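Running this now, will post back.
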Amino acid sequence: MRSQMCASCGHFFEVEERFAGGIVNCPACGRATEVAGLRDPLWKGLVIAAVVGWIGASSFVASTWGLVPGLAAAAALGLLLWLISRAF
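Update: finished.
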């Protein structure tokens, strides 16, 4: 079991481990609440690899085409990684 706080009403409640990374309804207000998640070591390794790749790709673009395209690439890749992480 893990302790979870509802983002809507601030109520603390217990959630089973199997819901880690998922969404549950708050028992107090009934709204959907995201459960902090994924303790899987493989997931952590993928996150580290994605961040390293993100920094490397952004640096490559910045060194090849300049600072502004490098920052744009960093922002675009960061957004893409964030969207992918929300899907899992």
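The chain has two domains: 2-34, 41-87. More later if anyone needs it.
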